[in-house]
Amino acid sequence: MPPELNARQQEILDFLAQTIRERGFPPTFREIAEHCGFRSTQAVSRHLEALEKMGCIHRESGARSIRLASRLLEEPDSTEPVRMVPLVGEVAAGRPILAVEDIEDRLPVRQDWLPVHERSFFLRVRGDSMAEGIQAGDLVLVDPGVRVHRAEIVVAMIEDEATVKRFYPEADRVVLRSDNPTYADIVVSRDFRVVGRVSALIRKYR
Amino acid sequence: MPPELNARQQEILDFLAQTIRERGFPPTFREIAEHCGFRSTQAVSRHLEALEKMGCIHRESGARSIRLASRLLEEPDSTEPVRMVPLVGEVAAGRPILAVEDIEDRLPVRQDWLPVHERSFFLRVRGDSMAEGIQAGDLVLVDPGVRVHRAEIVVAMIEDEATVKRFYPEADRVVLRSDNPTYADIVVSRDFRVVGRVSALIRKYR
DNA sequence: TTGACAAGTGAACGGATGTTCACTAGAATT
DNA sequence: AATTCTAGTGAACATCCGTTCACTTGTCAA
């Protein structure tokens, strides 16, 4: 919509957005000048004038009285397709998948990140078998019933025990390898099952 | 959560939130005084001082340099448990934060994972300075304007370059440390800025 | 070459703005 | 009754900040 934006104008617009986002209020003329390398506030004044004429900003009188046009506002009610995916248990110790009644929680995931079948779920990771890439407490998104390729990360069931490993199929057996080199490879033939592919990971700090 | 708020303090806090929401920047002392019916800016000064001590606002020097802390900037219709958080750029190389027009994408995040101020955003990580825990391509959720504690992960700006590091404050300087031991510590004094705390991480496989 | 124009410099100006100091009135505390 | 605390007044002040004016520089078209 805004026909042509100068490089300088774009730079100032970026700086305005950044400052407002990080500090909570707009910068002064002199702060803008310093950012752009100007030695005069007059240059800022004229650029802001141009930006206002183009409708990118709106100004009132007084210090820092700059408001960005409506594109800045984030619409939280956008109709993005999001699905709430259940967190159903833990992996790498004990029984991995609990009954549906034991859904601990639900986390939002964009629908285009999920396969169509609606059976994905989250598991909380225990242990450090995939450290440091996957850490204890991380939540892995597991897609059951999708094709797993070589070296992808899977949740595998081995004798009633579930673990997160990389998947290396061979002629008549499968090697399950940890990213953490202190864990030895696990070679399995038929006494195991791939629960699903790990397609994403969510980590919450603190 | 906030211990006890005076009626006046609540009135000022409401006025701050309303002004910021409607005008895009905070009011001046005299505007606050006029709203409250004060005839002196000194009363405003002391109330703001008290509010800052209670952690409700944060102030810098200069005109209108008031930032509301966490809880108060939310719209009254925030019953949604999920908020779409914008992905606004990359970090660890070049310019870190692009204009608001350049929102690449939006990702859903549970609202109770976010501070209430609605200014959180995602950045895509480049490089391996925090490997293996944080890998290239990961999306980090950045909360600007929250207190950062020792050893937490932050996005820091050092001379127009943004990086993800662990934050170790010392007497009159700050050590920024990579998890990846092949990167040396960066010691900075004043020529840097903490953009925000990294509070979560999302990784998409394949 | 000339002229127009956009972009920036440098300095000065005046008003806006946060700060400070001395003081008052009422309420709570001792 | 004396003292302290809270909340606000009023004025003075230094500085921050947007505005304005005159001038310079480089580019492009006529």
Summarize the structure in words:
2 copies of one chain form a homodimer. The first copy, chain A, is an alpha+beta fold and 206 residues long. Chain A has 2 domains: 7-72, Winged helix-like DNA-binding domain superfamily/Winged helix DNA-binding domain (Arc Repressor Mutant, subunit A), CATH 1.10.10.10; 82-202, Umud Fragment, subunit A (Ribbon), CATH 2.10.109.10. Chain A has helices at residues 7-23, 29-36, 41-53; strands spanning 57-59, 66-68, 82-91, 105-110, 121-125, 139-143, 153-158, 161-169, 174-177, 186-188, 192-204. A 9-stranded mixed beta sheet of chain A has the order 4-3-5-6-11-7-8-9-10, with no helix packed on it. In chain A, strands 1-2 form a two-stranded antiparallel sheet. In chain A, α1 packs across α3 and α2 packs across α3. The first copy, chain A, is elongated. Chain A binds a DNA duplex (30 and 30 nucleotides) through residues 8, 28-30, 38-47, 61-65.
